[in-house]
Amino acid sequence: MLEISLKKKLKGFEVGVELRLEEELLVLFGPSGAGKTMILKMISGIAAPDEGRVVSGGEVLFDSAKGVDLPVRKRKVGYLFQDYALFPHMTVEENIAYGIEGPKGTAVKKVAELLSLMRLTGLEKRYPHELSGGQKQRTALARTLAAEPGVLLLDEPFSALDYQVREKLRADLLNIHRLYPITTVLVTHDLEEAFMLGRKIAVINNGSIEQSGTREDVFYRPRTRNVARFMGVRNIFAGIVSGLEDSSVLIDTPDIGVIKAPRPQSGALTAGQEVSFCIRPEEILVIRPDRVLGKVQDNILECGITGAIGKGSTHILYLETGQGRTPLKVELPNFVVRKLELAVGRRVKVSLKRENIWVIA
């Protein structure tokens, strides 16, 4: 378990965070310069907070009020740096064994176990300069785990690796966390990485946590426009509440007309209130020209396709709709784009399905 309540003044803003974690993996997500790395440094003891408290597994590591400030070496906090910081004069197995305490036989057994887990068997005698980026990363992580930390801190550990290696190592990390259920905080500004790894996500902006919760809450139910934007929603609109129904709210927008959305469960809305609402690009439905609308009747918009970009297995379409040429971003599987022959210049109908819209009051 990890509990933190920390404050530190930096140039231009102040970091102020409070978090409580069990043996889980938290993704700390946000733009560059938001204070993510500084939070890790304060937890580990590399940087001193101005005030606050850090408790790991019931042990107080830092408490400004009581004058407690354990040195880095005594905190049992594993920190994996972006550059891995391997000892260049040591082999893979020597690097892993470096932080292991106890009898030599125990160290040999633990090193063998970690070499197997990290897919490093056969590389034991190699030096860091003889390793690929992915092998260096796995060696550094094995060395960190060998010391049996109570908390594991990962500072953008995959940022320097190519896509295929990153994808494999993300899967490795989830498996490692299953086998070694350590309280883990991973810093990233990669949206795909946050979605893949973050069963729990905290979104930080300008030193403060704007929202924390499950992946589903943060990605699909953002509390602020900033969180929606950071989570890749892109389709964020403003309007005025024009009507309220039992389970729906009607929002009058300047350019695209009245939109029907689910009524928020928390926070009372009133007629005439200004609100924002959003919908993720992958949740906008493109309606086939030959399809009878049937149940798809809410929020039908006529749009023109103004741009199209391939993105691996999907396509991003940029649309414009309404009198003010309001932009929409839609993400569709490639086979849908091909089947419907969607291309720049075509006119299409889309549905902002009521249940896929999230209202930010």
SSE diagram, text form:
Layout: E1 2-10, E2 13-21, E3 25-29, H1 36-44, E4 51-56, E5 59-63, E6 68-69, E7 77-80, H2 92-97, H3 104-117, H4 133-146, E8 151-155, H5 163-179, E9 183-188, H6 191-197, E10 200-205, E11 208-214, H7 215-220, H8 225-230, E12 235-244, E13 248-253, E14 257-262, E15 274-279, E16 285-287, E17 300-311, E18 314-321, E19 326-333, H9 334-339, E20 347-351, E21 358-360
Parallel strand pairs: 3-9, 3-10, 7-8, 8-9
Antiparallel strand pairs: 1-2, 1-4, 4-5, 5-6, 10-11, 12-13, 12-15, 13-14, 15-21, 16-20, 17-18, 17-20, 18-19
Helix pairs in contact: 3-4
Please, could you describe this protein's structure?
By secondary structure, the protein is α+β, with helices and mostly antiparallel strands. The protein has two domains: 2-229, Rossmann fold (3-Layer(aba) Sandwich), CATH 3.40.50.300; 233-360, OB fold (Dihydrolipoamide Acetyltransferase, E2P) (Beta Barrel). Helices cover 24% and strands 36% of the residues. The protein has helices at residues 36-44, 92-97, 104-117, 133-146, 163-179, 191-197, 215-220, 225-230, 334-339, and strands at residues 2-10, 13-21, 25-29, 51-56, 59-63, 68-69, 77-80, 151-155, 183-188, 200-205, 208-214, 235-244, 248-253, 257-262, 274-279, 285-287, 300-311, 314-321, 326-333, 347-351, 358-360. Strands 7-8-9-3-10-11 form a six-stranded mixed β-sheet, sandwiched between helices. It is globular, with a radius of gyration of 25 Å. The model has no long low-confidence stretch (mean pLDDT 91).
